[in-house]
Amino acid sequence: MTGPAPVTGPAPSRPGPGSRPAGGRPDPAGRPASAGVGNGYARLWAADPAGWAAAGAAWSGLTGLVDRRAAALEGAAGRLRTGWTGAAAGSAGGRVDALRGQLTALAPAAIEVDQVLAEFAGRLHLAKARLAEAVALADAGGVRLDRQGRAAVDPAAARPVESAAVARVAAAVAAALESADAADREAAGRLDELAAAAGAGWLAPPPPWRPAPGTDPATVRSWWAGLTAAERRWLVAREPELVGRLDGVPATARDQANRLLVGQRREVLLAERSRLLGRLPGGPLELAGLARVEASLSGLDALTARLAGGGQPRAYLLGLDPGGEGRAIVALGDPDRADRVLTYVPGMTAGLADATGELGRAARVRDRCAALDPTGSTAAVLWLDYDAPDFLHEAVLPGQARDAGPALHRFQEGLRATHDGPPARQTVLGHSYGSLVVGTAARDHGLAADALVFVGSPGVGVDGATGLRLPAGEVWASTAPDDVIRLARPPDALARRILVGAGPLAAVLAGPEDHALWFGRDPTDPGFGARTFPSGRYGHTGYWEPGNPALDGMARIVLGR
Fold first, then answer.
1. N- or C-end of the chain: fewer Cβ atoms within 10 A?
2. What is the DSSP letter of 212?
């Protein structure tokens, strides 16, 4: 490997963790522990993905310094204009403005370096996992791996070893090393491109046409692909509001644009808080509004900390809106490069205030996928881009789910349009009212998804899986035995129960309605036609608890198992 792949000291004394070669016996070649440090096999074991991710986060952190310097230049330009006039003043002001523009253009480049290094770190991690699998295959098959990564029959093997077993191990090692080499070459190429752009100038004149918000994602993707790299950087730096919300623009560009807007979004909330504080003591509406703004500010700060964390998987900010309860779209891992993509739609009361909590649920499914398949890549997206109900009187109506349908449809189409390489397996998961959002979008618009999952559902807007436009075998549902959502019966069934009480007559009259929930047939009912998976007794919000079999079930669906 060349380029970014590091050598972090002497080669390990065995190809993997521990102190001896695979198979647990001394190296027959008698090589010292430091032999082979220059070969890709030893270098991959020595590589530190976390170090590369941390280096990327440090680059991203430079955007704060850039913002401060740009603000200082803007202040200086303002002072010049108030105390200096004439041709020289105009020339000096123009120069300061140009410097400020150049500084502003550096911010998305720093974020892009973070993206490159984070992606490299993730792919290195997968390559190391593949190499670990190759070593385990060698241990199990009586195959010896020397410190160069060469496979041979272990003379001390307890049973005869076929040449095919040696070939399988050799191929597995070669595949792991090639995946690391490919990641290395790509990262080096992208960094070289950035370095060249820094010398030639970051930005080009803007393109003459831009798609409007809501444009078909395939059209947006075609438009974006036709731009030069400099034109794209111009749009990210100068029109982040547009780039950040266009489905069909790659996740990396949307992330750059939306990260540039985080400070502005926070200023909007701070201004609203100041306005409301100026009206105190106010009535209940003012107090409720102030509480909402404070919660959104706290949620935005928590989300900002996650974005700046530098851990794996890297978070990609695909949308952010502080209005109302607040909205956010955040991907853990690059959905354009992943083998599988989960889109999670939360339910009632979801907003910016608890975005990191909802993101944690998506993260648990992704983590479980990684545990079940260490060599595959999964991205998990929190899609909180709709006005979720805040109160029960809103949650009993389907209007907010219906209004969310077009946006969810476009988002999923955008994931398909921007994905690199073979199509990812896309799964859309809805919880509680979010399951109605998913079901309504699938029913009315269709969803670019290979599987739909409903947990804790009050009904999904259809009475059978066939109404969701997916094969019935890819529609899944689970409801915990103690989930209160089971009581969300339709109004007529509830009325009958109230009228006749809880005696035998109630059971007779309400029996045929036992499959019905507020928004349609229970998706876990056999008559609905979905496949079900179990959940323990963890209530309405416990589907993501580590001990709940539902978590394993959701992960296996995402993996397509």
1. C
2. P
